[in-house]
Design a protein that fits this description.
There is one protein chain. This protein has 11 helices and no strands. The chain is mainly alpha-helical. The longest helix is centred in the last third of the chain and has 28 residues. Keywords: DNA-binding, Transcription, Transcription regulation. It comes from Streptomyces halobius.
Protein backbone atom coordinates (compact mmCIF):
# COMPACT_ATOMS: atom_id res chain seq x y z
CA UNK A 1 0.00 0.00 0.00
CA UNK A 2 2.77 2.42 0.96
CA UNK A 3 4.64 1.62 -2.26
CA UNK A 4 1.50 2.30 -4.29
CA UNK A 5 1.02 5.70 -2.58
CA UNK A 6 4.65 6.58 -3.21
CA UNK A 7 4.27 5.77 -6.90
CA UNK A 8 1.15 7.97 -7.06
CA UNK A 9 2.91 10.87 -5.38
CA UNK A 10 5.81 10.52 -7.77
CA UNK A 11 3.75 10.62 -10.93
CA UNK A 12 4.55 13.58 -13.18
CA UNK A 13 1.90 16.24 -13.64
CA UNK A 14 -0.35 15.73 -16.63
CA UNK A 15 -0.54 19.49 -17.36
CA UNK A 16 1.80 22.38 -18.09
CA UNK A 17 2.07 24.44 -14.92
CA UNK A 18 3.00 27.71 -16.65
CA UNK A 19 0.06 27.44 -19.04
CA UNK A 20 -2.30 26.68 -16.16
CA UNK A 21 -0.96 29.66 -14.21
CA UNK A 22 -1.50 31.96 -17.19
CA UNK A 23 -5.10 30.80 -17.40
CA UNK A 24 -5.52 31.52 -13.69
CA UNK A 25 -4.16 35.03 -14.24
CA UNK A 26 -6.80 35.66 -16.87
CA UNK A 27 -9.58 34.25 -14.71
CA UNK A 28 -8.77 36.44 -11.70
CA UNK A 29 -8.12 39.40 -14.01
CA UNK A 30 -11.54 39.10 -15.63
CA UNK A 31 -13.64 38.25 -12.59
CA UNK A 32 -11.77 39.51 -9.54
CA UNK A 33 -10.62 37.54 -6.51
CA UNK A 34 -13.86 36.82 -4.71
CA UNK A 35 -16.02 36.11 -7.77
CA UNK A 36 -13.56 33.52 -9.07
CA UNK A 37 -14.39 30.10 -7.61
CA UNK A 38 -12.32 26.95 -7.50
CA UNK A 39 -14.65 25.43 -10.07
CA UNK A 40 -14.07 28.45 -12.34
CA UNK A 41 -10.35 27.96 -11.96
CA UNK A 42 -10.31 24.23 -12.61
CA UNK A 43 -12.46 24.72 -15.69
CA UNK A 44 -10.32 27.57 -17.04
CA UNK A 45 -7.01 25.92 -16.15
CA UNK A 46 -8.12 22.52 -17.46
CA UNK A 47 -7.15 20.64 -14.31
CA UNK A 48 -8.91 18.89 -11.43
CA UNK A 49 -9.30 20.42 -7.99
CA UNK A 50 -6.83 17.93 -6.42
CA UNK A 51 -4.27 18.85 -9.09
CA UNK A 52 -4.80 22.55 -8.42
CA UNK A 53 -4.28 22.13 -4.69
CA UNK A 54 -1.24 19.91 -5.21
CA UNK A 55 0.42 22.30 -7.65
CA UNK A 56 -0.56 25.70 -6.29
CA UNK A 57 -2.02 25.29 -2.80
CA UNK A 58 -5.34 26.90 -1.92
CA UNK A 59 -7.09 29.74 -3.73
CA UNK A 60 -5.24 32.44 -1.79
CA UNK A 61 -1.85 30.88 -2.47
CA UNK A 62 -2.70 30.60 -6.15
CA UNK A 63 -3.81 34.22 -6.23
CA UNK A 64 -0.53 35.35 -4.66
CA UNK A 65 1.31 33.54 -7.43
CA UNK A 66 -1.05 35.04 -10.01
CA UNK A 67 -0.29 38.55 -8.74
CA UNK A 68 3.45 37.91 -8.98
CA UNK A 69 3.09 36.53 -12.51
CA UNK A 70 0.90 39.46 -13.52
CA UNK A 71 3.56 41.87 -12.31
CA UNK A 72 6.26 40.10 -14.29
CA UNK A 73 4.29 39.77 -17.49
CA UNK A 74 1.93 42.74 -17.63
CA UNK A 75 1.97 45.15 -14.74
CA UNK A 76 5.56 46.33 -14.34
CA UNK A 77 5.45 49.16 -16.87
CA UNK A 78 4.87 51.93 -14.32
CA UNK A 79 7.91 51.07 -12.21
CA UNK A 80 10.07 50.66 -15.30
CA UNK A 81 8.99 54.01 -16.72
CA UNK A 82 9.64 55.88 -13.48
CA UNK A 83 13.01 54.17 -13.00
CA UNK A 84 14.26 54.51 -16.57
CA UNK A 85 13.23 58.04 -17.54
CA UNK A 86 15.44 60.99 -16.52
CA UNK A 87 12.66 63.01 -14.84
CA UNK A 88 9.48 62.23 -12.96
CA UNK A 89 7.39 64.02 -15.60
CA UNK A 90 8.83 61.93 -18.40
CA UNK A 91 8.42 58.76 -16.37
CA UNK A 92 4.80 59.50 -15.57
CA UNK A 93 4.00 60.59 -19.14
CA UNK A 94 5.46 57.33 -20.44
CA UNK A 95 3.63 55.28 -17.80
CA UNK A 96 0.27 56.85 -18.67
CA UNK A 97 0.85 56.32 -22.38
CA UNK A 98 1.80 52.69 -21.79
CA UNK A 99 -1.20 52.22 -19.49
CA UNK A 100 -3.46 53.29 -22.36
CA UNK A 101 -1.95 50.55 -24.51
CA UNK A 102 -1.73 47.85 -21.83
CA UNK A 103 -5.23 48.36 -20.45
CA UNK A 104 -6.84 47.99 -23.87
CA UNK A 105 -4.56 45.34 -25.38
CA UNK A 106 -6.54 43.06 -27.74
CA UNK A 107 -7.00 39.45 -26.71
CA UNK A 108 -6.74 39.82 -22.95
CA UNK A 109 -8.78 41.31 -20.10
CA UNK A 110 -8.88 45.08 -19.93
CA UNK A 111 -7.70 47.22 -17.06
CA UNK A 112 -5.28 46.36 -14.27
CA UNK A 113 -5.63 43.25 -12.12
CA UNK A 114 -3.97 44.97 -9.13
CA UNK A 115 -6.52 47.79 -9.31
CA UNK A 116 -9.70 45.82 -9.98
CA UNK A 117 -9.27 42.31 -8.55
CA UNK A 118 -10.43 43.14 -5.02
CA UNK A 119 -12.70 46.17 -5.44
CA UNK A 120 -15.68 44.35 -3.93
CA UNK A 121 -14.68 41.83 -1.31
CA UNK A 122 -16.22 40.49 1.89
CA UNK A 123 -14.48 40.67 5.27
CA UNK A 124 -13.22 37.12 4.63
CA UNK A 125 -11.07 38.49 1.80
CA UNK A 126 -9.84 41.55 3.71
CA UNK A 127 -6.21 40.38 3.60
CA UNK A 128 -6.31 40.10 -0.17
CA UNK A 129 -7.81 43.58 -0.50
CA UNK A 130 -5.19 44.98 1.88
CA UNK A 131 -2.36 43.33 -0.03
CA UNK A 132 -3.46 44.81 -3.36
CA UNK A 133 -4.06 48.20 -1.75
CA UNK A 134 -0.49 48.18 -0.43
CA UNK A 135 0.80 47.44 -3.95
CA UNK A 136 -1.10 50.44 -5.33
CA UNK A 137 0.17 52.66 -2.53
CA UNK A 138 3.71 51.40 -3.14
CA UNK A 139 3.45 52.62 -6.73
CA UNK A 140 2.31 56.02 -5.53
CA UNK A 141 5.23 56.21 -3.09
CA UNK A 142 7.60 55.32 -5.93
CA UNK A 143 6.23 58.18 -8.02
CA UNK A 144 6.45 60.53 -5.04
CA UNK A 145 10.14 59.69 -4.52
CA UNK A 146 10.83 60.53 -8.15
CA UNK A 147 8.94 63.80 -7.83
CA UNK A 148 10.86 64.74 -4.67
CA UNK A 149 14.15 64.03 -6.44
CA UNK A 150 13.12 66.42 -9.22
CA UNK A 151 12.16 69.09 -6.69
CA UNK A 152 15.58 68.74 -5.09
CA UNK A 153 17.35 69.02 -8.45
CA UNK A 154 15.30 72.00 -9.62
CA UNK A 155 13.43 70.10 -12.32
CA UNK A 156 10.19 70.92 -10.50
CA UNK A 157 9.24 74.07 -8.58
CA UNK A 158 10.19 74.04 -4.91
CA UNK A 159 6.56 74.57 -3.90
CA UNK A 160 5.36 71.40 -5.69
CA UNK A 161 3.27 69.18 -3.38
CA UNK A 162 4.94 65.84 -4.11
CA UNK A 163 2.42 63.74 -2.20
CA UNK A 164 -0.62 65.35 -3.81
CA UNK A 165 0.91 65.11 -7.29
CA UNK A 166 1.79 61.44 -6.84
CA UNK A 167 -1.72 60.65 -5.59
CA UNK A 168 -3.13 62.55 -8.56
CA UNK A 169 -1.16 60.31 -10.91
CA UNK A 170 -2.41 57.25 -9.02
CA UNK A 171 -6.00 58.46 -9.38
CA UNK A 172 -5.55 58.96 -13.13
CA UNK A 173 -4.07 55.49 -13.62
CA UNK A 174 -6.80 53.85 -11.54
CA UNK A 175 -9.44 55.79 -13.46
CA UNK A 176 -7.94 54.72 -16.79
CA UNK A 177 -8.12 51.11 -15.66
CA UNK A 178 -11.80 51.39 -14.82
CA UNK A 179 -12.56 53.34 -17.99
CA UNK A 180 -11.00 50.56 -20.06
CA UNK A 181 -13.14 47.96 -18.29
CA UNK A 182 -16.16 50.11 -19.11
CA UNK A 183 -15.24 50.02 -22.80
CA UNK A 184 -12.96 53.02 -23.39
CA UNK A 185 -10.52 52.39 -26.24
CA UNK A 186 -6.82 53.17 -26.44
CA UNK A 187 -7.30 56.52 -28.19
CA UNK A 188 -9.67 57.68 -25.45
CA UNK A 189 -7.21 56.69 -22.72
CA UNK A 190 -4.35 58.39 -24.55
CA UNK A 191 -6.40 61.59 -24.62
CA UNK A 192 -7.00 61.26 -20.87
CA UNK A 193 -3.27 60.76 -20.33
CA UNK A 194 -2.42 63.86 -22.36
CA UNK A 195 -4.96 65.98 -20.49
CA UNK A 196 -3.63 64.71 -17.17
CA UNK A 197 -0.12 65.83 -18.05
CA UNK A 198 -1.35 69.38 -18.64
CA UNK A 199 -1.69 69.65 -14.86
CA UNK A 200 1.98 68.81 -14.34
CA UNK A 201 3.99 71.64 -12.70
CA UNK A 202 6.58 73.19 -14.98
CA UNK A 203 9.74 75.23 -14.76
CA UNK A 204 11.75 76.86 -17.51
CA UNK A 205 13.92 73.72 -17.51
CA UNK A 206 10.94 71.38 -17.96
CA UNK A 207 8.47 72.77 -20.52
CA UNK A 208 4.88 71.61 -20.57
CA UNK A 209 3.90 68.93 -23.09
Amino acid sequence: MAAKEARQRGRPRSFDRETALEQAVRSFWEQGYEATSISDLTRTMGISAPSLYAAFGDKRALFDEVVAEYGRSYGGFLSRAVAEEPTARRGVERALREAAAEYTHPGRPHGCLIISAALNTSPASAEVAASLREMRLSNIREIERSIRADIASGELPAETDASALAHYVGAVIQGMSQQSRDGADRATLETIAALAMEAWPTTEKEPAL
